[in-house]
Model the fold of this input.
Amino acid sequence: MREPDLANPSLVRWFAFSPHALELGVSAIFGFPVRVGAARLGALNLYRDHPGPLTDAQHADGLAIADMIALWVISAQAAAPDGVMALELEAGSHFHFAVENAAGMISVQLGVSVTEAHVRLRAYAFSHNRTLAEVAEDVVTRKLRLS
Done:
């Protein structure tokens, strides 16, 4: 993922995010996958206060740092006492289940794709200054219905 000019994007993707990011002085965003082989662990997102693409060297550095983060995560898991990381990962998995369940519910309720439902869920959370997990939990427990 990359957007070298958030104020003048080549493809408008983040309707709710972009105006607020620009207000805070973010002009460019670059994302690098944190992964080990095919296993995706997350993403390293970098923000810049001026527009413009990364140089080849900067892009290579971003990929290298993302790889170092992935290795650190794997090392931390290997060094953790038995069962500790499993409990942490299991606790964190509820977040993903709630978000996926909420997106499915929104998709059916609004007759939109699951991708669109994810966008709406994230936009609602962002625009209401709430975490994605909080909003997803409210949707799943039927405290909130998006329109």
